[in-house]
Amino acid sequence: MRIGDLAAKTGVAQRLLRYYEKAGILHPSRSANGYRAYGEPAVDRVLQIRELLEVGLTTEMIRDVLPCLETAKGETEAQACPSAKDLDGLRRQLSSIERRIDVLQRNRQAIKAYLRACDDAAEATPAAVVRTLSRLRSDNDADPSPRQAEPVR
Fold it and tell me: Does the pLDDT value for residue 93 go beyond 60?
């Protein structure tokens, strides 16, 4: 597929795809006329790059990590590990990701509890309204001297 097709499938601008190529994290082949050509795996690659960027990895970190991720999926032979300096940065990012996951899980639980409470209240409300209306009707029926509404002036 050409770059426009990849952009359409991933929602990533062509300019950004060219940047990924320049950064060494996306590797298209070139057709005879010089156009970039991408295989179907490029869609997953671009989406993975976007996810890694969203969690705070730099393109340099991604360039180091992607071969290891491909090895873990069994797509390529084992790659050499990044330098200790780069590993420290990755460890910091991992710690940050784990903190965010904890916060997201707590927020998810709080929102679920809130929605359950709202759903329970909504289910209880119609019955409460019916009881209140019934009580009001019976109170009005029991009143021996119904009040006349004052005329509107």
Answer: yes
Q: CA-to-CA distance for 100 and 83, rounded, in angstroms?
A: 26
Mark 33-69 as b/e (b = at least 16 C-beta within 10 Å). eeebbbeeebbebbebbeebbeeebebebbbbbbbbe
Both tokens assigned to 130: 């019916």
Token reading at 92: 């910091």
Q: DSSP for 60-109?
A: HHHHHHHHHHHHHTTSS---PPPPHHHHHHHHHHHHHHHHHHHHHHHHHH
- Whether the model pTM is above 0.70: no
Between CA 74 and CA 51 the distance in angstroms is: 20
